[in-house]
Amino acid sequence: MADFVLNVADDLTSINLHEIFASVSYAQLYDVTPDQAVQLLAQVGIIGGVAYDISEGVDSAVILETDIGGLALCGEGISFSNADVPTGGTVTSFINLGSTGVQSYFYYINVSAVALYNAMATVSTADDAAIFAQAFSGNDYFTLSRGADKANGMNGNDVMNGMGGADTLIGGAGSDRIIGGAGRDLMTGGTGADRFVFTTTGQTGTSATSADRITDFTHGVDRIDLHAIDASTVLSGEDAFTFIGAAAFGTTGKGEIRFEHVDAAGTASDFTLVYLDTDADTAAEAVIRLNGLVTLTAADFVL
């Protein structure tokens, strides 16, 4: 299971490791324990006073200085030749420092130091993709920045939290949990039984053009999780939504969910709108957009 945190908006679907490699001006290998790795990274400015969780079992760290910051590659048994080329070992943590601080970090990965070096040394991005596919092959956790990020969970049952910004989140294979967060997000579950989570009505828009969009929602397989939202701002207590199909909203103050199909069947611009009503009027306080014409039932939601 990899744990990935992104502090600065980035497109993780098109990372070119060679661009990082080309900017390296200095490299040094250290033999360290996990605690020593944390101390070392603080000394060279990689940590900057923040306590990062270095994976257990770390016995070596490579510090790379770049034109705009630095990198720390921590792992087990990392070794170099006299020509400063990796000859063995495994990278288990990867911390990327930019000009404004720590931009991103990966924990609990398991990548060959030799394969990572080769990917960084070549201009082609095909081997970069293979490295990331290996790193994110398990049940991974992504915490993205508050900017407009792009990320692909690839394989495994992943948890993806977009936090803020207009994110593009792709779960990939596996049963993923995708949380767009604030901003107008584009979410694709991929294969598997995926769950699209909304914890407040403010995490999506109020119209077809401002709503979060789910590109591949499959009735009876995927679910939209709304259970963290208090369905009624009028009634006391924590209320659950009631699914009313295609019927019109009432005025009782009871939280309701309805859906409607938009555009003619069989055209490229078909979509389904899911409306959430949390007060006593007939207007929606939140809208979620699904690609295609999807006939929904209460079972498609976690209420």
Can you describe what's shown?
12% of the residues lie in helices and 34% in strands. It is mainly β. The chain has two domains: 120 residues, no CATH class; 160 residues, Alkaline Protease, subunit P, domain 1 (2 Solenoid), CATH 2.150.10. The strands form two sheets. Strands 1, 2, 3, 4, 5, 6, 7, 8, 10, 12, 14, 16 and 21 form a 13-stranded mixed sheet that branches. Helix 3 packs antiparallel against helix 4. The chain is elongated, with a radius of gyration of 23 Å. The two termini are 29 Å apart.
CATH architectural name of the largest domain: 2 Solenoid
Series of secondary-structure elements, N-terminal to C-terminal? EHEHEEEEEHHEEEEEEEEEEEEEE
CATH superfamily of the largest domain: Serralysin-like metalloprotease, C-terminal
Shape: elongated
| Alpha carbon gyration radius | 23 Å
Give the rounded overall mean pLDDT: 86
Structural domains: how many: 2
Structural class, by secondary structure, is: mainly beta
| DSSP summary: helix tally | 4
State the separation between the terminal residues, measured CA to CA: 29 Å
CATH topology of the largest domain: Alkaline Protease, subunit P, domain 1
Can you tell me the residue ranges where pLDDT is under 50 for at least 5 consecutive residues?
46-54
CATH uppermost class of the largest domain: Mainly Beta
Helix content: 10-25%
Domain Peptidase M10 serralysin C-terminal: 153-302
Pfam family, one: HemolysinCabind
Organism: Rhodobacter viridis
Keywords: Repeat, Secreted
